[in-house]
Amino acid sequence: MEWTGARYADKPTVEVRTWIDATPDRVWALVSDIAVMPTMSEELQSVEWLDGAEGPAVGARFLGRSRHDSFGEWSTTSHVIECEPGHVLAWAVEDPTDPSAVWRFRLRPRDGGTELSEWMQLGPGRSGLSFAIDTMPDKEQKIVFVRLREFERSITATLEQIKQRAEA
């Protein structure tokens, strides 16, 4: 797990890795199936492809609905910005030129299985976290730290579920 940055404008990131005793193709089948992601997340409630898309491809869009005790309920439109089957899937949340977040799964063959990492970056575009920072600018570093810790826990849990499903 790695973190960088302390303020929102720094585009702080978090990344978690795991090794899975399964082929990259088997792992890819799970990480590229966005419909399965809400079953592995407390925050993400539902996901659906938009514009007739049926799977990931650069430029494809999907709608995600989320819920958080502190932020309430919201929805976002994400844009696939990288898609290399068996290797990488990344999407920008809301505006792809100024995203509120960027998420990326990266798969690498390793030791007869797959190293899977999930990485996310806050900002630079505004998000729900921006409103919390606006109301308490003196607490910005703590707000960012707490949110990154939440993402770390969530990503760790998601990777564990992907691992269990891929190895089953």
UniProtKB/TrEMBL annotation:
<dbReference type="InterPro" id="IPR019587">
    <property type="entry name" value="Polyketide_cyclase/dehydratase"/>
</dbReference>
<dbReference type="InterPro" id="IPR023393">
    <property type="entry name" value="START-like_dom_sf"/>
</dbReference>
<dbReference type="Pfam" id="PF10604">
    <property type="entry name" value="Polyketide_cyc2"/>
</dbReference>
<protein>
    <submittedName>
        <fullName>SRPBCC family protein</fullName>
    </submittedName>
</protein>
